[in-house]
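Handover notes (outgoing to incoming on-call)

Open items:
1. ParM/StbA family protein: sequence verified, structure written out, both below. Nothing else pending on this one.
2. Nothing else urgent.
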Amino acid sequence: MNIGIDHGYYAIKTRHFSFPAGITVYSHEPYTLQNTLEYSGKFYVCGTGRQPILRNKMENDNYYLLTLAAIAKEIKQRGEKTECSVKLAAGLPLAGFGREKKPFREYLLRSSQLVCFKFEGIPYKITIEDVKLFPQGYSAIAIHPELIQNEPSVLLMDIGGWTVDLMRLDNGVPNASTCRSLELGMIRCIDETKEQVRRDVGLSVTDAQVERVLAGKPCSMDEDARSIIQKQGRLYTERLLSAAMESGFDLKAIPVVMLGGGAAVVKGNVSEQDGLCRVFVLIDDRVNAEGFERILGQFSGGVSKG
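ParM/StbA family protein structure tokens:
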């Protein structure tokens, strides 16, 4: 079975799921088994808030443990056997792809031995046969090739939790010399927004509330706080577009494909006055994971069912 996983700073994404990348460890069984991974004698509740930013995701075992949780969720969703072999398809930003490819593959692969764990009380015996790594952002084009059809040059803007990865495609091929990674992801936007609300109206709003208002969804909240959050969303968008222009991309000359968890926020805050050439927005934050899986399926002669 092929399983695509997008290991984000803010969330872990698979073809069917997106859950926060936070993880909390317990020595004893926690109050609920929901989203709980039992591995090597410890219990880990996965998807609780977000973990501290790691410059190197391989610094500890958190992303490996979250990978096991993601595998279990996909197996259950697809109705597959809990004892099986899987091939993982994951991604890295193109800017650091060559540097991180080998160590990240080894980090996820570990060994060809069975990995035994429980997730939500169900025992799993998994053999990770292989790990294939693909460029983030570009993999989404495997799902939506129509976006670059008849376009000689396109900018891919993958708006993640911590970084915004930029890459220009010329005639459908990534131009490696144009890759940039900006530390302007949604975590920065949310943290600065919460601080502004505290400063102006003295309220401590949550990440979830800020996300919901930024996405234009209904949420019970003080109207002054809501107005500040909406204003911060526009300021973040202006800052991001300005940073992209400063990185050498003329957004008034070439179309932009936006994807990632922050794409919906930016879409809702782009206005006519920005004068952008053309914007395509992929709202579903699971599109990278689905793209990884689609490409791996093409390599191995088939696409996983489910």
